Amino acid sequence: MDTTQIKTARSGAAGTTRPEYTSVREHTQLLRIKKLTGSGIIAIAARHNLREIQAERGADSHIDPRKSLLNVVLRGAGRAAAVAAEAVRLMEQAKAKPLRKDAVYGLEILVSFATATSAS
């Protein structure tokens, strides 16, 4: 259970108040959105997300390969090459013109929930 406490603190402007937040985290829930830019970024991101980069699964890695089997692909292909091919197909289908060097090719969205063992 996240115990966020809200205190009222006075600001200097004619006695107005603003909330002041302090938080003690017992578990974390996370939503993160990242822009994917640059040529080939869809394939690179897919290889990372689908744990196809061997160096990321090595002894010095923070990734536990035993837990990677628990990852679930909610929608789309389960291999990086297929993800990249689908991105190219969608761009062609949309008749997208050549993109700028700094164009956003996609969004990476990470949703993480508290584990059952840490939830109160």
Structural class designation = alpha+beta
**Basic shape:** globular
N-to-C SSE string, H for helix and E for strand: EEEHHHE
Which ranges are low-confidence, i.e. pLDDT below 50, for 5 or more consecutive residues? Answer: 1-12
The count of helical stretches stands at 3
Oligomer: single chain
Summarize this structure as a short list of keywords or feature phrases.
about 120 residues; alpha+beta; two-stranded antiparallel sheet; two-stranded antiparallel ribbon; 3 helices; 4 strands; about 20% helix; about 30% strand; disordered N terminus
Question: How would you describe this protein?
Answer:
By secondary structure, the protein is an alpha+beta fold. The chain is built from 3 helices and 4 strands; from the N terminus they run βββαααβ. The chain has one domain (3-112). 22% of the residues lie in helices and 28% in strands. Helix 1 (41-49) runs antiparallel to helix 3 (80-93). 3% of the residues are buried.
The gist of it:
This protein has 120 residues and is α+β, with helices and mostly antiparallel strands.
Write the layout of secondary structure elements.
Elements: E1 3-10, E2 17-24, E3 30-37, H1 41-49, H2 65-68, H3 80-93, E4 104-112
Antiparallel strand pairs: 1-2, 3-4
